[in-house]
Structures are given as C-alpha cells and as structure tokens.
Amino acid sequence: MAINARATQEFVPISDIKDGIITLKDGSLRAVLLASSINFSLKSNDEREATLYQFQDFLNSLDFSVQIFIQSRRLDIRPYIALLEGREKKQVNDLMKIQVQEYIGFIKNFTENSNIMTKHFFVVVPYSPATLQGKNTIFGLFGKKKSVEDKKISTQEVFEEHRTQLEQRLSVVEQGLVRTGVRIVPLGTEEIVELFYKIFNPGDAEKPIQLS
After folding, report:
1. The pTM of the whole model exceeds 0.70
2. Where are the domains of the chain?
3. 117-to-53, 68, 75, 121, 199 alpha-carbon distances in Å
C-alpha cells in the first residue's frame, strides 16, 4: 500500500518570515517576544502581590489576545564541555590538566544522571487584518485590473500598514510587561527560524542550524 507522503511545509501555517514578522497563510501576522522570568522566591509577599496586580492590570488593558509559550528543553552542556576541553589542551601543568579532565568527567556524569532543563518564555502577539475580497463587493465588479508590478507595490504597502499595526501592539505588550519587572526582547528573523526549527524538529534541537 503506497503512502502519500506530503512535505512538512504543507502542515506549517507559515507563509513567510521577514524582518522579524511572521506572515501566516491566511494573511495574518505574528511577532514573537522573548521574556525574562521572575524569581518569586526572592521576593517579599508585598512584592509578589504587587507583581501579580501589575500583571493583572496588563491583561485587563489588552483589547487583543496574546499567547504565552513556554519552551522546556534539556540543557545542552556540549558548548561548555568543548570550552573545558580547549582549556585542557592549553594546560602545560600536568596536575592542572588532570584536574580539568576530572572536572569534565564530573560534569558529564552529573548532567547524564540529572534531568537539567532550561526554560524559555515567549509572548506571541498577533494581528489579523480585516480583509475584504474584491470579487464579493460592488467595488470589485468595476475595479481596474492591476499589473504584476502594481500588485507587488500594493502587497508591500499593505504589509507595511499591517506591520505598523502589529508594532503598536508590540509596544503595548512591552510596556505592560516591563511594569511587572519582565524584560522583553523581540526575536529577529534568524531567531524565529531557529525557534520553529526546534519546535518542528525536536530530535535535532541540539544540532546547529544552518541559515541561508
């Protein structure tokens, strides 16, 4: 029995990623913010309540939805091991070299026997423009046909207009979260590509990503 294998792209709703903006196949836009965490255990009860109230006010102030995404992954210790191995090779003192080797062995055994996880927090901000299909309106019946070049210019203008609307939402989200003590960094195109690559390829999450 033959299996009709379809490309992974058919199941991914992303049409394009440009200038840190994700364009979905339905025409809506998304931007992703990397958010820092807050250690409640180091705060007093008053500080915790103040933070919660600020976050509550932030959510109540929004007139659009946002998505909070938490990514948990096993800690990749390989870069640190590679750094230690490089320093080991530079050691001229035999005793220091043995100590570095033992430390490398300890780190490897500890991480292999312990489930050490890293967490990253993301806030996804959407913008879905209200589209009006010309063929379904009276204006579309009598509209002039556009050339290919005109359509390209129109598409770019529409994208920039929608991008402006999305950036205004990003500003609202950033200001609201900063009041709660959360630091925000918008992801660029390469960071977004890497994020989605790891989401759709969990087995390759620790491999380096080659971006064209």
Report:
1. no
2. 8-73+119-204, 76-115
3. 29, 19, 5, 13, 16
